Structures are given as structure tokens and as C-alpha cells.
């Protein structure tokens, strides 16, 4: 091989990667969670993101089907190390090497997945975890960083740690923000690591939860239209919870010597049901207000004109399989329903004035399970409990879109939720003879009786429509060829 060959090939690789869309800095991304019994095929979801020009996605794990579907999509990816994986990776360089090889190198090098960040844990410093993950974070990051160096990816893939906002606090105003006492040393180490590698501090901010958990919290302070209860902090006045929370973190970082560290918002959003303050109107107002604020580049009082490095909306899709321990709203954060249908008009500031719905969703046949009108429902309670313990009935409760549809409506909704979860198995609509299958849609007003998704037809590969085609895909091919060649020559 001629002298300078590897350097030339690396230059070609960098040129190819720099030309693809996910190198561009788009402010708004999404979280894609998959805790659902009605998972739309990954390829359909990737096409949904591309149709809506969403160029950044944050994942909570390293699902192979999801990562394969993202290949060549032009979408920048943050892939997640789960909290349960932290201990083994922190304690073993070999385990870190294997994780990177299986979940990063194989996709960046062979499949062209735009993995740019690895999230090491998910909110590992939560107070409720009582410190069980804290000792793993820095060792895990150190080991993964070494693995990235070995794979020649350390300058390209950055490590971050998504933190819950409970990692810092303030007695009253943002300028008094500090990290929790037991986290100060650890946060200083984390900030130093992030600063040295050029990665942002990632924080999850939820004004909705502040409103939900505190009856004295001013409702208008949770939104972006201005508040009648502003927070005055010396020369700075805060009219919304987001700015106040963000600057509390800025103050906390300043006190440990990293006041200029870039900050990205890992999760932020508003649920559409499951609580009195969770509804379509409020969700649209919050998310649109947030997007308008971010895209205006206004920044915050402590960082004027400097918006967050990235903002990942929570979330892309509803996840009816999530725990409702925090509240019934936990399953309803999506800007799209589980099947990729937009819940409300929203301009993401990415080129489309409204959201576009998913296409080619492989629904199960149009049939539903409902209460048999010819049967007495006196003995139905145990059947309803069974159905709702297995499937999602949160929309039936106060604050839900199906609240108030009547007793028979409640029974039918519960029966159908279970029936669809069981992929329309006829036996799952028996309920001791109280259920029956119908081909007439029993939906009532805003209460939608779902039809499940046939995940047996799941395609892991997104189509080329609406995203990476022509010159873009040609560049991906070039990038992949260069990576393959470098590996064959032992220099990549």
C-alpha cells in the first residue's frame, strides 16, 4: 500500500461523514422508547421521523432491530447503556470492549448508523435509587472511553450521563443552585470528563411534574407565555419553570468550576392524559412554546443568546407498557400515539408546519372485543381487573380521554385492550362468555378503541423514501467502504 494511504482514506471517510445530514446541528430531537405491546415496526418509525425531518434520536438501550432500522437514515443517534449494565462495564474493561463492539462499532462501521453519543446510564443519580449506581458511573465511562479509543471512535462518539433535575437544588432562586451534597465530588468528576471530551451535560427537565406534584405550583409558570408569579433573582426575572430550572443547573455547574459547560436537554415534554393537567391542549401549548423558545435562540438569563446544545422531546410515541407507579400519565407522553398518528398540530421548527402521520402501519384486522349486550354484567369486575392488570386501561380513569363513557363502555374498553394485546386471539375475548367480537368500531368521541399492530410483519429496515437517497446514500456507501477497507488493512 502506498505511503499515506490510510491517511487519505481517513480523509475520505471524514469528508463522507461530514456531508451526511446528521452532522448538521438541529436543535430538536426526540426520545424513542419501546416499552409497548403494540410496537410499530422500527422501519415505520424511522420513516416517520424522516418524514417529520427529525434528525436526532435518543434511545434508552441498544435494541438491535432499532439500530438496524436507523442504518443509512441520516439520523444522529444517542444509544443507551442501561442502569443494569453499569456494574459489569464499570468492573471489567473486557465487558466494556464487548459492549462497544456489539452496540456501537458493528453499527457505525458496518451499517452506517449515526451513533454520536453513548448515554451511560439513565438518571443514575435519582434520589429514589439511594446511591446504588453512583459508584459505577465514572469507572464505566472510563472503560467505555478506552473501548472507543481501541475502536478508533473516541473522537467521534461522545459519552454523556442523562441526569434527573433532582441532582441539583436551590433554596429559593436559580443563582443559589448547587448539586446535592453527596453528589458534589462526583459531579465535579463528571463535568471534568465531559469538558475534556467536548460533550454536554445532559439533564432531564419536567415542568409538568413540578405542577403535578405541588398543588401550590403556579400553573402559568409551567408554560412559556409568561407568568403572573415570576421569580425575581437579583437583576434576573424568571417567567417560566424551564428557564428557572436550567439556570439553577448553570449555577450549580459554576460552583464546581464548569459554568461554561454546554447543556443538552435529554428529556422534556408534556403528557396528553392521565392527570387533570395532562391533556391535548396543555401538551400542545407546552411543546410548541418550548420549540419556539429554543428555535428563537433566546437562551436564559444566565446564558442569553445561548440555547441548549440539543433538546430531545419526550417522547416520540406513547408506551402503554410503562409502569404507572408515577401516575397514569406515564404512558401518554408521545407527540404521536403508539401507531405513529399525530395527537395534535405541532410545528417542530424543522421544516414541516404540522406533524406527518406514520404510513404503512401493519395493523391487525379491523375488529374489536366488546361487552356482550345480551349478557348480564354483574359478575364482570374480576374480568375487568384481569384485563386491566395485563393491558392499558389508564384512559378510563379521571383525566383520561375515555373517562365517563359509562359502565358498559368501560367494560368494552378493558376487554378490547386485552384482546388487542393478545394479538386478537379469539380466546382472549371470552371473559366467561361476557365478551364478543365485533367488526363495528366501538370508539366514542375522543375515546379511541385501538386496533393493535401486527409486529410479526415488522421490518427492521426503513425505506429510502423521504430521507437518505441519491448523493446522500452514495456518501454513506463511500463511508462504509472506507471503514471496511481500513479494518481489512488493520488501521481502523
From TrEMBL:
Subcellular location field: Cell membrane
E.C. code: 3.2.1.39
Annotated TM spans: 460-486
Membrane topology of this protein: Lipid-anchor; GPI-anchor
Domain X8: 367-449
A Pfam family this chain is assigned to: Glyco_hydro_17
Catalytic function, reaction form: Hydrolysis of (1->3)-beta-D-glucosidic linkages in (1->3)-beta-D-glucans
Key words of the record: Cell membrane, Disulfide bond, Glycoprotein, Glycosidase, GPI-anchor, Hydrolase, Lipoprotein, Membrane, Plant defense, Signal, Transmembrane, Transmembrane helix
Major subcellular location class: membrane
GO BP annotation list: carbohydrate metabolic process; defense response
GO molecular function, one term: glucan endo-1,3-beta-D-glucosidase activity
GO cellular component terms, semicolon-separated: plasma membrane; side of membrane
Family membership noted in the UniProt record: Belongs to the glycosyl hydrolase 17 family.
PANTHER family, A to Z: GLUCAN ENDO-1,3-BETA-GLUCOSIDASE BG1-RELATED-RELATED
Protein's name according to its UniProt entry: glucan endo-1,3-beta-D-glucosidase
Native source organism of the sequence: Zea mays (Maize)
Amino acid at each position: 500500500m502506498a505511503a499515506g494511504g490510510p491517511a487519505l482514506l481517513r480523509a475520505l471517510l471524514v469528508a463522507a461523514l461530514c456531508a451526511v445530514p446528521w452532522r448538521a446541528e438541529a436543535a430538536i430531537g426526540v426520545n424513542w422508547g419501546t416499552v409497548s405491546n403494540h410496537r410499530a415496526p422500527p422501519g415505520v418509525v424511522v420513516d416517520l421521523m424522516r418524514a417529520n425531518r427529525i434528525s436526532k434520536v435518543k434511545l434508552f438501550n441498544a435494541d438491535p432491530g432499532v439500530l438496524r432500522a436507523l442504518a443509512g437514515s441520516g439520523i444522529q443517534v444517542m444509544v443507551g447503556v442501561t442502569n443494569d449494565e453499569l456494574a459489569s462495564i464499570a468492573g471489567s474493561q473486557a465487558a466494556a470492549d464487548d459492549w462497544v463492539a456489539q452496540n456501537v462499532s458493528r453499527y457505525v462501521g458496518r451499517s452506517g448508523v449515526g451513533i454520536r453519543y453513548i448515554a451511560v446510564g439513565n438518571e443514575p443519580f435519582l434520589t429514589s435509587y439511594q446511591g446504588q449506581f453512583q459508584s459505577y458511573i465514572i469507572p464505566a465511562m472510563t472503560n467505555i472511553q478506552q473501548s472507543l479509543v481501541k475502536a478508533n471512535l473516541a473522537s467521534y462518539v461522545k459519552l454523556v450521563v442523562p441526569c434527573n433535575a433532582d441532582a441539583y437544588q436551590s433554596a429559593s432562586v436559580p443563582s443559589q443552585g448547587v448539586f446535592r451534597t453527596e453528589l458534589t465530588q462526583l459531579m465535579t468528576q463528571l463535568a471534568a470528563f465531559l469538558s475534556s471530551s467536548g460533550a454536554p451535560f445532559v439533564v432531564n427537565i419536567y415542568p409538568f411534574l413540578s405542577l403535578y406534584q405541588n398543588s401550590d405550583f403556579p400553573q402559568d409558570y409551567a408554560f412559556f407565555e409568561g407568568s403572573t408569579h415570576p421569580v425575581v433573582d437579583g437583576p434576573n426575572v424568571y417567567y417560566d419553570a424551564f428557564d428557572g430550572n436550567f439556570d439553577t443547573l448553570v449555577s450549580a455547574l459554576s460552583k464546581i468550576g464548569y459554568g461554561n459547560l454546554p447543556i443538552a436537554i435529554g428529556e422534556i415534554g408534556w403528557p396528553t392524559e392521565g392527570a387533570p393537567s395532562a391533556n391535548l391542549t396543555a401538551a400542545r401549548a407546552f411543546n410548541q412554546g418550548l420549540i419556539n423558545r429554543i428555535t428563537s435562540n433566546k437562551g436564559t438569563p444566565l446564558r442569553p443568546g445561548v440555547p441548549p446544545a440539543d433538546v430531545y422531546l419526550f417522547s416520540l410515541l406513547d408506551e402503554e407498557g410503562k409502569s404507572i407507579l408515577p401516575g397514569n400519565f406515564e404512558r401518554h407522553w408521545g407527540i404521536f400515539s403508539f401507531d405513529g398518528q399525530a395527537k395534535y398540530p405541532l410545528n417542530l421548527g424543522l421544516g414541516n408546519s404540522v406533524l406527518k402521520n406514520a404510513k404503512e402501519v401493519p395493523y391487525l384486522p379491523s375488529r374489536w372485543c366488546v361487552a356482550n349486550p345480551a349478557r348480564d354484567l354483574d359478575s364482570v369486575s374480576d374480568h375487568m381487573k384481569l384485563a386491566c392488570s395485563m393491558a392499558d386501561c389508564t384512559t378510563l380513569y379521571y383525566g383520561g380521554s375515555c373517562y365517563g363513557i359509562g359502565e358498559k363502555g368501560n367494560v368494552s374498553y378493558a376487554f378490547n385492550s386485552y384482546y388487542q394485546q393478545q394479538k386478537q386471539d379469539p380466546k382472549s375475548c371470552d371473559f366467561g362468555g361476557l365478551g364478543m367480537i365485533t367488526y363495528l368500531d366501538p370508539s366514542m368521541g375522543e375515546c379511541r378503541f385501538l386496533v393493535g399492530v401486527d409486529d410479526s410483519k415488522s421490518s427492521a429496515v426503513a425505506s429510502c423514501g423521504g430521507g437518505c437517497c441519491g448523493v446522500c446514500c452514495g456518501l454513506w456507501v463511500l463511508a462504509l467502504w472506507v471503514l471496511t477497507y481500513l479494518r481489512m488493512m488493520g488501521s481502523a
